[in-house]
Design a protein that fits this description.
This protein is an alpha+beta fold and 140 residues long. The protein has helices at residues 7-17, 19-22, 54-73; strands spanning 25-30, 35-39, 46-47, 51-52, 80-88, 98-107, 111-120, 128-135. The chain has a single domain (7-135), classed as Thiol Ester Dehydrase, Chain A (Roll). It starts with 6 loop residues before the first helix and ends in a 5-residue tail after the last strand.
Amino acid sequence: MQIVMDAEALNVFLAREFPQVAGSYRVERVDPQSVTARLTVDEANLRPGGTVSGPSMFALADLVVYCAILSRIGPVALAVTTNASIDFMRKPEAGRDLIAECRLLKLGRVLAVAEAMIFSEGGAEPVARCSMTYSIPPKR
């Protein structure tokens, strides 16, 4: 699949269209096989017990899948999640950022299916795995 938006273009798009996430999430890499994004973990992402909250991990997965799709189809702000499943596999480390790696499994005209693996920065084992389906609006 051809890359239409690189990491910098995706970050500019996120800052413009979703300023509420621009400070915490950043696309770090786009290549033909995957997209990588980071959640800068701070106190707002933590829950009791010193771990990153599930909603924070889900938001990172959703963002990296969205960006993987946009990296191939361009800035389509109205592409939306239609299905999601997440497996929380181990406790993320509170003092480390989270890194999500997304692989597009299918990119069609109206649906995209992707998988995201989330890691604590520097960790070898994933802390979560997410499968998502997105609906892509028709071209005008």
